[in-house]
Structures are given as C-alpha cells and as structure tokens.
Amino acid sequence: MSRLGFIVAFISLQLLFVPQVYSLGASHLCRSYCGNVTVEYPFALRSGCGHSGYRDLLFCINDVLMFHISSGSYKVLNIDYAYRSITLHDPHISTCDSIVLGHKGNGFVVENWRAPYLSPTSDNVFMLLGCSTQSPLFQGFPYGKHSPCRNVSGMGCDEYYGCQGWTDLGLARMGLAYGTGPPVCCSLSFDAIKSVNLSKLECQGYSSAYTLAPLRVSGPSEWTYGIRVKYDVEPNNDSYCKACEATGGSCGHDVDRLGRLCICGSWNSTSNCDTIMKLSVGGTSSPADKLLGLFIATTAFWLTSFRT
Ligand SMILES: *[C@@H]1O[C@H](CO)[C@@H](O)[C@H](O)[C@H]1NC(C)=O
Ligand SMILES: *[C@@H]1O[C@H](CO)[C@@H](O)[C@H](O)[C@H]1NC(C)=O
Ligand SMILES: *[C@@H]1O[C@H](CO)[C@@H](O)[C@H](O)[C@H]1NC(C)=O
Ligand SMILES: *[C@@H]1O[C@H](CO)[C@@H](O)[C@H](O)[C@H]1NC(C)=O
Ligand SMILES: *[C@@H]1O[C@H](CO)[C@@H](O)[C@H](O)[C@H]1NC(C)=O
C-alpha cells in the first residue's frame, strides 16, 4: 500500500473513533426525572450512576418516586439539593387529624452499610404511639429521669395530645397525658435511638414531623408531617465529583467494586473526562483502549511526517 493509502486508512479509522472519544456530553447521562422530581447526584435511577451509598434506593413507579430501605417503601415528596435533604411520606404516619394505630407504619430503619449516608434530620421529631410497657423505650423505669422522651425543635407529645385525631379515637387529652403507665406518646429525635423499628420498640404507630427553620409554627395542626432525611456524601471529598462534572462527565460508581467512576459517555475514567490516559475502569487499560491509543498516536505521527 502507498504512503497515501496508509494515511487515508488511518484518518478513516480515527474518524470512526474520534466522535466517541471527544463526546464530552455525558453530564446529563445520569440525570433523570420522575414525575416532577429531578433525580441527580448523589441519587440516581440508573445502575452505576450516583454515589454507591445511594444505590438501589430510588425507583420511579408510574411517575411516583419511591424510596426503598429495610423498613419499607416511602413516597419521595421532594429532594432539596441545596440543603441536602429528602422528604418522605409514609401513608401510615399519624398526623394531627388522623392517628393510625394497628402496627401499620414503616418507621425508619436503614441498612447498616447505608446508615452513614442517610439519617433523619436532628429537627425531625418522631412520636412513638401506643408502645407497650415492655418496650425497650421504657426500660429503666421509674418514668421521668430515665425516659428518652423529649421535645425536639419545640415539637413534642404534650402539644400533639391536643390534636383532633385523639378525640376521634375516643381518647381525651387529660387521660393521655396523666396516665399511670408509660406515656401513650413518646417523642424523640432519630439520633436518640438510631432506628425506628416499630416491632422492636413494640409500638402500635408513629408520627413524624418537622418544621422548616427558621419558621416557628404555633401548634401540631401546623407541623409538616413526613420524614425529613439528610444525606451526607463525604462533604470534604466532593472535589472528585466536581472535577468530573466540570469536564462534562457524570458522577457514578463501579457496580461491582463500588469505587467511584466518572462516566464520560463511551468510556469511564477513575478521575475525570479530560484524563484520556485513564480510559477504563479501575485504571487498567483494556486492549481496546490500548488499540485506540495506538491509532491516535500513529495517525498523529503519519500526519506530522506527511507535512514535513
Ligand atoms: C461505565 O460505568 C457504568 C456504570 O458502572 C457502566 O454501566 C458502563 O458499562 C461503563 N462503561 C464502560 C465503557 O465501561
Ligand atoms: C425490626 O425488629 C424486628 C424484631 O427485633 C426484626 O425481626 C426486624 O427484622 C427489624 N426490622 C428491620 C427493618 O430491621
Ligand atoms: C410536584 O407536584 C405535586 C402535585 O402534582 C406538588 O404537590 C409538589 O409540590 C410538586 N413537587 C415539586 C418538587 O415541585
Ligand atoms: C415539651 O414542651 C412543653 C411546652 O411546649 C412542656 O410543657 C413540656 O414539659 C416539654 N416536655 C418535655 C419532655 O420536655
Ligand atoms: C475521597 O474519595 C476517594 C475515592 O473514593 C478515597 O479513596 C479517599 O480516601 C477519600 N478521601 C477522603 C478524605 O475521604
């Protein structure tokens, strides 16, 4: 073959590869929408996208975003990326109008490996309802000093007893607050117990509420019922993801080894999409990547020698 023939061949080969190599448009590869909720880093709906701590967590079912952990499935009402919080709804959460007993609610229990990444916010109050005398909550009686029940962010059972829902259940406020057994309602923060497992705590139901600071709302009829969860993605280590996105990539992870990956379209990098040398998973080049590198190098050589 003539020298010109080689050049033509190599240019054709390069044209075949170039559009893939330089397609720096992967930043939206991992973004999804479910109903009107945007799902993006650290969350994802696609396998391999997002942070590994949030893998297999969110599912979009008929345009409803669902959040799935050990204790059950919750509807996601909102993801606040600025405040790193996610708001969940459990249909069996008691509100002010409706007290739901009968062991129906999910509570809130996350898998051990996921615990560092997700926990209800410190200003979210959990109110455990109808827990038995034998409940681990009330071990170490007499009540009072050893009771874990507290007000959280100005919200607690004393006010919750004023809700219409109790009256509808046929329970009067006085009887609720001043009985001789354990309290019918025990409010606490998630941090106090680290897991709201209703069967383990022997409770018949629960409520969860939060107020959006700095607004102070007056009473339980104005609290927002739901579970507000904060998500923490190694805040000191986000430069990795920023660098990936700045070069047009999408932050993801290796599905098998769970290490971080920058998804660059047709290849993955362990750093960012400008680093052509780190083409593949885990930093070791596959034969295809090596071949691609060889084509680029050889074509560059031929083009240069043709000009001079
Ligand atoms: C890049 O990583 C994603 C997520 O782990 C994976 O689905 C995809 O197959 C990888 N692509 C390549 C070219 O290795
Ligand atoms: C809750 O506690 C019960 C009893 O200890 C246990 O069997 C169950 O697996 C726990 N649920 C979750 C979601 O961890
Ligand atoms: C999504 O739409 C529902 C009504 O369809 C609305 O209540 C909710 O606030 C919306 N969420 C967001 C994040 O816009
Ligand atoms: C909670 O706050 C109320 C006032 O809103 C107060 O009367 C009550 O003693 C507090 N309860 C606890 C357990 O601190
Ligand atoms: C940052 O993330 C990388 C990759 O996951 C990890 O190897 C490193 O230890 C992390 N550094 C810190 C300070 O957490």
UniProtKB/TrEMBL annotation:
Domain of life of the native organism: Eukaryota
UniProt xrefs under Pfam families: GUB_WAK_bind
Residue ranges annotated for the Wall-associated receptor kinase galacturonan-binding domain, each copy included: 30-90
Gene Ontology cellular component list: membrane
Keyword terms, alphabetized: Signal
Mode of membrane association: Single-pass membrane protein
InterPro entries associated with the record: WAK_GUB (IPR025287)
Subcellular location(s) of the protein: Membrane
Signal peptide positions (record): 1-23
Main localization (coarse): membrane
Listed name of the protein: Wall-associated receptor kinase galacturonan-binding domain-containing protein
Higher taxonomy: Eukaryota, Viridiplantae, Streptophyta, Embryophyta, Tracheophyta
